[in-house]
Each structure stands twice: as structure tokens, then as C-alpha cells.
Fold Nicotinate-nucleotide--dimethylbenzimidazole phosphoribosyltransferase.
Amino acid sequence: MPSLKETIDQIQPLKKEAMDLCQKKLNNLTKPPGSLGVLEDIAIQLAGITGSTSPSVKNKTMLVMAGDHGVVAEGVSAFPQEVTPQMVLNFINGGAAINVFCRHAEAKVVVVDVGIVGDFTHPDLIQKKIKQGTDNIAAGPGMSYDEAVKAIEIGIEMAHEEVQQGAALLGAGEMGIGNTTPSSAILAACIDLPLEQIVGRGSGIQDEALTNKIRVIQQALDINQPDATDGVDLLAKVGGLEIAAMTGVMLGAAAHRVPVMVDGFIASAAALAASRICPKVTPYMIASHASMEPGHQHALRLLGLTPMLHMNMRLGEGTGAALAFHLVEASTRALEEMSTFADAGVTSS
């Protein structure tokens, strides 16, 4: 499988000629120029990603990465750690929101264990466990630099395998109790804002726990001193195994010239790390929705991405990305199935 370095080397700029041709194609369809708004922007982006003026995203895969977090011991989550494997089993059995939305979008769901605490096994769980969850970032690095690279490369490997099987649109989802804490730490290292403006309630913690969560994140930043210019260092020092694997999915998708949906706050933290590893990756990203987590809008702004949906969601799992799969496919269907002015016998001016 491609290494992180090989993957970075494979990521190229979008193809401008294809984007220009796609714009001309859109302008000839039976509608005023630009009247489909963001759908036209997506169609042009997809043309640049794929190099085709007839891009197809019919085959879609949601890669759900799962891992636990030692920082949960600091009381930063409303739920106990054992919920991670319980929810992963729910994913596998098809009973979670991500399964419902992916079925509706006719998308495949793949669940990968990169760091669940315990020896949870299931025939339908892809086993790629690196370690039994990250270490407590409030006391030191969550993982070593090499472990972070390994987690990223697992994401790259999974993206590679899905593309080889025909996936034309990928989403990166996650499950990991406590993972808004490392995500907030990643964002805080990248932005000059008070923690109070970017740290949210995650799974629903109350005021006292929120104050503690902010204290824990500040302690993690003070102890670890992550380098915001080095995405791997960010992930190793204050990130999570599943967040690093999501980063790898994004890099792997771009290396194969495949678009990747960015979900909510956790996914945006992974996207920030990916952009620090290889700035050329961000044009391959499509922002799905605006999470209720306060840090999400700041992360998207840093990435230069605009979300399509505003649904007051904060579930994670990849749910916002799964909902947005429909819109991305709609953009390609409009491009291919609408008549031109000439074909429809409609006066264009």
C-alpha cells in the first residue's frame, strides 16, 4: 500500500481545463447561468478532481474509523468509554443514524477499528488496531509520531481499497467517546482564539464539565506544545487514532483524484491535519454541513470550505456527509441529464 510520503507525492492540483469545459457545459444547459448555485460549483470542482466533464459519484463509501481516548479519564465526556465498542456494534448491525442515511444514499458503510480499548472483534469489523486507545493528552502525547503515521497510512490504505473496488466518492466518519476534546486541541493549536470560543459540549456535557474540558485542553496544549505547521505532530501530540485515520482517508482520496466529504467537527480537525501535511489536499474536500459545535465554523474557515447544509446537527459518525452525498450526486446528474438549449429547442438569449 502507498506510504504517507508516496501519497503526498501523488496529490496534484485540480485540472483547470476540465473545470473550464465543465463551466461551458453548464452554461449551455436549459437554465440561466449560475442558477443552480452551489450545485454548479460542485460539478465544476468534481470536473477538476476527476479530469472529466461527466463525473460520476454513483458508487459511494463511508469509512467509519473508531478509536478510544485516554483523556476520557479527565471527565470530558457525558458518556463512558464502553459506549465506543457498543456503538461500533450498532454500526455493524446497521442500526445507527449513519447506517440509515447511507442506506438512503445507497452508500456502503465500512467500519474500521484503529484503537478501540479492549479486544472487540466481529467478522464485519475491519481490524487495524494500533494500540488500546490514545494515551491521556492531558499528561503527555496521545501517541508517538510513528503511531500517528501508521494511523494515517491505515486511512490511506482503506481509501485505496475502496477506490480499487469502484468508489467514486468517499466520506470519513468516526466513533470515539471523548473525541471532541482532541479535535478542539488540534483546532486550538491552529488558530489564535480563546478556548471558550471554540470548545463545545460534545456529547452534551453540562457547564461544570465544560469548564473542566477547557482546562484539560489547555493543559494538553501546554504540556505537549504541538507544532501547528506539522499535521503529523498535531495528531501525535493532541489528536486521536481515528482522527489520524480520517486524515489518511482524505489524503488517500486526493491521491486517487476522488472527492472526499468532510463531515462535522471531528472530520474538520482531521481535514486541518491533512491540510498541514499536504496543502494540495483541500481542493479535493467538500464540506457537507455546519455542525452545532462552535469550533466547526472556525475549522472550515481555516480550510476555506463552505458547508452545504445547516441542520443543527452534532452527532458525528459521518451523518452530515452521508446526507450531503445526495447533493453531490444531484450536481452530476444535472450536468448529465439536463437538456441543452439546442436539444430542447429553447431560446438561450
